[in-house]
Protein 1
Amino acid sequence: MLLHRAGHLSGRALRRAQRMRCLRGRGECARHRPVAGQRDPHPGGSRWVSEPGGTGSQGPPTQSPEPPGQAPETPTRGWFRLYRTQILFIGGFLSSILAFAFVLNFEVVTLHLVNPYTEWIARASGVVLDLFGEQTSVHGTLLSSPRFAVNIYHGCNGVLATSIYLSAVLGFPSTWREKALGFAVGIPAIQLINMVRILSLYYIGIYWPNFFELAHGYVWQSIVILLSMVVWIFWAERFVQVPARKPA
C-alpha cells in the first residue's frame, strides 16, 4: 500500500515537473505528454506512452510557435500613404522644372530652338498689329513701328510659362493620352495669352509709357503665369478621369 502510494505521488511529481519545463521553454503547451509508463490523463489520447523507440503510440506533435505578424505601421509610412498622390505630384513637378531649366541652359538649344521661336513670335505679333493699321517691321526679335518698338526677350516669349505648365501636366497623375491632350490644349492657349501680352505692352508703350516697365516686369509676368495655371486646372478638371475607388 505504501509503495503504491509512493509510486502515485512520484508520477504526479514527474508530470508536474514536465509541465513546468514546457512552460519555461515555450510559454505554453497545447498538450502535455504523459511520462513513459504512466496513464495519459487527456481523453482521446493513447492509454500508455512508451520510451522513444518503443512500441507504444506517440502523443500529438507539439505546436510550433505562430509566425510573427507584420510590423505595425509607422507614423511616417502612414503619412506617406495618406498623402501619396500629393507627394508624387510635387516631386514630378519639381523634377520636370529642373529638367526644363537644365535643357534650356544649353547654348545649342538657345540658338537653334529658343531664338527661332522668339523670332516667330515677333513676326506673328507684327502681322496682328498690321491688321490694326500699325506699320510694323520685324528684325530678328525687334518689333518696331514709327510710333513704338519692343524687343521680345526670352522672358517675353512664353517659354517660361509653358515650361511651368508642362511640368504641372507631367507631374499630375494621369495617363499619357491625357497628358498629350494637355499639351495640345495648353501650349496654344499660353501662346495666345502671351500674344495678348505683347500687343498690350506695345500700346501701353504708346499711350502710357510711364507704366510700361511696371506692366512689363510685374503685372503681365504674374498674369501669364496665373493664367497658365488656370489652363492647367481646366485640363485637369475637364480631361483627366479620376479612377473609381474600390469599395471597402
Protein 2
Amino acid sequence: SRRQTVAVAITRAGVPVYEDAGFQTTECGSEAVTELAGFNADDPRHRNARRSARHASRAGVFVEAIAPGSRDVLRLAPDFAGITEDWLRSRKTGHLGFIVGDPFLPGFQECWYFLARTAERIEAFAMFYPVYPERAVYMDLTRRRTDSPNGTMDLLLTQAFRALAESGVRRAYLGMVPCVLSGEVPATFETTMMQVAFQRLNGLYPMRSEHFFKDKLATRWEPRFAAFHPHRGLRGMLAVYEALWPDGVAGILRHKLRSPRAGHENPPVPSSIADRRPAALWGSRNERAASKAWPAIKASVPRSMEETK
C-alpha cells in the first residue's frame, strides 16, 4: 500500500512551503508564546500564575538558574531521573515519543536549565533550547515531583522568564497543545474530530489541562499546522498518533491502570531518545514521497544551533 509522509507543528510561515511541495495542510493545534520583553507576573492576565507562585514561595520554594555553557548540570542527572519517574506516575499517557526531548541531547550545554528547590531537595526542573535567529527559547521539558508544593511550576516559570528576559531573550515558545484551533479554521472532518477530541478525550491526553496551564503565562497563541503527502486523511492522522504514542491505546490504558500503591514500579526513564522504542512512521519507506518532502522540511525548519550561532 502507498505510504504517507506527515509533518506536524508547522508554523503559518511554513505552510506555503509545504503546499508548494505538494502537501495538503490543516490546522492541528496552537502554540503558547510568551513575549519576555516587559514580562511582569503582576499583569492581570497572569494573576492565577502569580497567586499560585506566591503559595510555593511561602512554602520555601526558590529558583536556581543554570545558564548555557555550564557542564554542572550533568551532576543533576540522577535528580532529573528521579523527578521524571515520580512525575510519570501522575501522567495519563505515560512517556510520549517523537515530540518530547531529553535533558542531555547533543548541544545541551547551550540550553538554559531552571531548578525549583527547597532546603531538602530539587522539587522541579525546566529546560529551554535556544532559537538563535529569533533570540528566543523553546521550552522542552518541565517536570515536578508529585508531592511538591502547590504552585511550584508557576514559580519556576515566572522566575525563569524574568531571568531569560534579563539575559536578552525576547520570547519563549511553550509548546503546542493539540486540537486547540483558531476561530478562523474552516470546518472539515479533521477539524471537527479535533474539536470533539479536545472536549471529550482529556482523560486520554490532558489537552484541556495543558491549555489551562500554559494560558496562565502565555501572552498570545499561534496556530500550528500538519502537512500530509500526498493527501490528508485518517491514515495520516493515525500516523501522528502512532508517533506520539508508540504503545497505542493499550499502552495508555496500561499506564492509567497501573497503581503505585499496588507495588508496581514505573519503567526506567530513557536516558536518551536513542533508547526509546522507535515509532513506526508512515512514509519511512516511500523514497519518492520523501524526496518531495525533504526540500519543504529543510526550508521550514530552523537551522542547527551550530549554523545559526
Protein 3
Amino acid sequence: MENSNYASKIDVRIIVSNLDVAGLVSKAVDNVHLEKDYNIVVSSIIPTTDFEIAKKVAEGADIILIGGYGQDDSYNMLFNDLKTDFNHIGLFDYNNVLFESEEVNAELAQKEILNSIIKATLSYSLNLINIHTLENKLLKITHNYNNLLDDYNQLIKENEVLSMENNDLREDMNNLKSDFSNFKNRFEDIHTKDFLEIYRLDELWSETFGQDLADEKKIVIATNKFKPENILVGQGFIAAQSRNQAIEWLKIIKTALIFVEDNKEELKKELSSNTQNNPPEAMDDYDSPNTFENFWD
C-alpha cells in the first residue's frame, strides 16, 4: 500500500527475516485491530534480508519495526540506513515470541507486536511533538528573520536616498565655497574703496538753487570733461561721496555756466583774435583748451 492512503494515520512497516515470520506477524496484526483501536496502519510486512529492498519498501514510513534477535549487527545496519528525523525505528524482538523449545508462540508474537508498535508509536509521537515545537520555533525565527531582512532592505534604500542627498549637499556646499571664494576675491579690498551716494540731479539742483534744471546735458558734458574725483553724472542722477560734495560740484558747474553765458561774446572775440595771430596747428582732441564755451557751442 502507498503511504498516501493513510495520510491521517500512523504508517507502520515491519521488516522480518523470512516468510514464516512474516505470516505469523500478519496474523498477529490482524488480531490486535490496530487501525480501529489505535489509528495505526501496518501498511507493509517485508520478508527480506536484502538491505536495498528493505530500504526501498520502508522509505516514507512513520514507524519501522525491524525483526531480529536483539539489536544485532543486521538491526544496527538497517537502523543507520533507515533512520531520519521524521521516523522512529523499533525492534521486534524474536527472543520474546519463542518458547523454551525454540518454537514461535502466536500469543507471545501478538503481544510483542502490539507492545513494540505501541512503544514505537509513543516514541514517534514524542518525536513529532519535538519536531512540531522545533518547526514552530523555526517558523518564528524565519518570520523574525524576514522582518529583519525587510528592515535591512528598507535601511539600505533609506541609506541610498541619504547618500544621494548627502552628495547633493556636498555639491551645493562646494558650489557655495566656490561662489564665496569668488566673492571674497572680488570684494576683499572693498573696505579700501569709497562708496558713492546717488541723488536725483533735478531734485538736488532745485533744492540747492531754488530753480528747475534747464539743461542737464551741459552738466554731464562738463563733468565728463573735467572728471572730478568721486563725481559721476548721467541718466538724471549725480553720484558723490556725500550730499555736500555733490552740491559743491553743482555750484562749480553753475558758476561756470553763468560766467560763460555772461562773457560769451567777449570769449568768442578773444578766441577769434588768438586764432588770427597764431596759425592753426594740428591738435589732437586732448590738446583742446579746457574752456567751457567749447563744450556746448
Protein 4
Amino acid sequence: MNTIDIHELEGQLAGGPGDPGRPDLVTIRRLGHRRRRVRGALAGGVAALVVAGSAGSGALLLGDDGSTARDSVTVAVPPDAELSPLAERALAEIPGARQVNSGEVVIPAPEDRLFMAQRVEVVGQPVELPRHYYYGVTTYRASVWPAWLYEGTEKAERAAAEPDGSYGAGTRDVTGISVDVGPRYLACALPRAEWGGDPDDPCSPAIVTDHSDSGYVFEYGLGTDDFLTDGAPMEVFAEESYISGDLTTLAVAGLDGADVARAEFISADGTRVEGQVEAGTLMTEESFVFAEVPGTLARIVAYDAAGEVIEDHQLRDCDTPVECEVR
C-alpha cells in the first residue's frame, strides 16, 4: 500500500487520462456500496490519501477535520440483537423515531444538505425500488443533530476503530441507528467529471436517491455491468436486511436484451415473488428486473412474452460481502 501526501495527490489528479500513476476514479466509484470507507485520525493533523495497489482494496483516509465518507450499506442486524443505550435514547427523544427490529431504530432525515453528496444527472425517469435507503448519523454535519446523538455516534465509531486508527464514518451497525432518507431508485446516471468520465460517455446503471433541493444523489454503482455485453448471462445484485423486522432480500438483476416480459424471484424456502420488469426503458436493449423477497434469494427466472424461459439463474455461493455483491 502506498501513502502519498495531499500535494502528490493533486499532482496525480492533474495528470492525463493515460498517466499510469493517476488513481482510476471511475473504477473506484464503481466498486459498489459494500466497500467500507474510513476516516482516520492522523498524527499532526496532516491529511493523507492511502491508495491501495488495486482499486478493489482502496480506502480514503482523511484527517479528522470534519471531512468524511459514508458507508450506507443496509446492514443485516441480527434478530436477537438488543438496542444500544444510544438507540434507546434516540427512540425516546427523536421525533418520529421508530424501532424496526430488536436491535435497530430508524429516525427521520434532518432538513440538511449532505456534505458528501455526489449529485448526478440521470437519463430518463428513474424507477423506485421496494426498499428505502438509509444513512448513518455522522453522514451529516454535527449541527443538524442533538449533540448527544452525533457525539455518541462518533464516540462509538472511534471505539470500533481498526488497529491503524481508522474508523467507519456514517456507520449504522455500530449503534443500531439508521437515518431514513426516503426511496431509492434504479437509474441510468451520467458520470461526473471528477470520476474521470467524458461528456460523451453513456450513462450507467446506478442506485440514486432524490433530494428535491438539489436533484438526484449517487449512492452506489452496481459493481459491474458485464451483463450489458451481448450474450452475457444475468447478473444479480442482492442486499439482505432486517430493516423491516424480518430478514428480506432486495435484488436487482440485469440482462442483455429487451425481451424480458416477466420475472419470478424465488426464496430459499420456495416463496415466489413476481418481480417488476423494465425492458428497454432505463437503457435501450437492456432489461432490469427487481423485487424484495422474504428470507434469502435463491433463484431468478426470466421469461419472454410467450412464456418461454430466457434464463433460469441460480445465485452462486459466496463467502464475503464483496463476493456476494454480484451473484
